[in-house]
């Protein structure tokens, strides 16, 4: 049987790897990129020059950086995601009520992607809120586990096989059977918990958002453990976030008895 898997275009793959390297290195010269990707310096230079001419890379002194043209593509993709329009009003209300940090997230190629962040008046600093566009592993976050609860076990295993289950803290779930058992509990309760699994001393509660029978993302609220004692963390916040999810899914519903 002929191989039906798509062939990669090597030049596109290299260009994307260079972009990722520029971000990871916070800017770099051709030599550093060549060493990072194990390619020739002249090859790295040619790619950087092409990306610069197309507006995707900028140069400051002798260092290349990611250009703002990527921002146009990223904002277009974000603003066209259905989670943004339907979730922000209710997430804002949840943050105002709790004073903590709220996240709107979605899954993209097996990673948890932050689409929106709303900070409450009790926020600590950006270390805890992260940034829009952040890509994280699904297993360590309430939002990630919430989204996984809407997937089949086979799809969950595909994500695990592709990305693994790295540990953020000693509390992170890194065993496949343990994660599947946790996901089953999320399905039963309708909410997912992050009990110091991503950051020590930090707790969060998340829930999936479903639109037209498809899980399209999740809403999460989080804060320091000292402000989230067990009863508040395990009962009060889940009730609040279930109400928020109800509002969001009603707002996103395409059907109405009055139409």
Automatic annotation (TrEMBL):
GO terms (BP aspect): negative regulation of DNA-templated transcription
Taxon lineage: Archaea, Methanobacteriati, Methanobacteriota, Stenosarchaea group, Halobacteria
InterPro entries (alphabetical): ArsR-like_HTH, GAF-like_dom_sf, HTH_MetabolicPath_Reg, Tscrpt_reg_IclR_C, Tscrpt_reg_IclR_N, WH-like_DNA-bd_sf, WH_DNA-bd_sf
PANTHER family: HELIX-TURN-HELIX TRANSCRIPTIONAL REGULATOR, ICLR FAMILY, HTH-TYPE TRANSCRIPTIONAL REGULATOR RV1719
Keyword field: DNA-binding, Transcription, Transcription regulation
Originating species: Halobellus clavatus
A matching Pfam family: IclR_C
Record's protein name: Transcriptional regulator, IclR family
Alphabetized PROSITE patterns for the sequence: HTH_ICLR, ICLR_ED
């Amino acid at each position: 049987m002929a191989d039906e898997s798509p062939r990669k275009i090597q030049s596109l793959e290299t260009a994307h790897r260079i972009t990722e390297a520029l971000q990871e290195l916070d800017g770099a010269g051709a030599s550093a990129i060549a060493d990072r990707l194990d390619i020739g310096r002249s090859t790295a230079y040619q790619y950087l020059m092409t990306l610069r001419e197309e507006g995707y890379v900028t140069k400051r002194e002798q260092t290349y950086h990611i250009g703002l043209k990527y921002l146009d593509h990223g904002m277009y993709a974000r603003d066209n995601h259905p989670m943004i329009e339907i979730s922000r009003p209710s997430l804002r209300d949840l943050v105002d009520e709790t004073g903590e940090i709220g996240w709107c997230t979605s899954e993209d190629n097996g990673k948890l992607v932050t689409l929106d962040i709303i900070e409450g008046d009790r926020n600590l600093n950006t270390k805890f809120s992260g940034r829009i566009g952040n890509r994280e592993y699904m297993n360590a976050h309430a939002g990630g586990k919430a989204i996984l609860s809407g997937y089949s076990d086979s799809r969950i295993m595909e994500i695990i096989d592709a990305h693994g289950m790295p540990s953020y803290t000693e509390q992170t779930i890194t065993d496949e059977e343990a994660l599947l058992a946790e996901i089953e509990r999320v399905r039963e309760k309708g909410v997912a918990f992050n009990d110091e699994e991503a950051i020590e001393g930090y707790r969060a509660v998340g829930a999936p958002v479903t639109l037209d029978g498809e899980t399209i993302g999740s809403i999460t609220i989080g804060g320091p453990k000292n402000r989230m004692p067990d009863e508040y963390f395990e009962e009060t916040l889940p009730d609040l976030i279930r109400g928020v999810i109800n509002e969001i899914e009603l707002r996103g519903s395409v059907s109405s008895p009055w139409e």
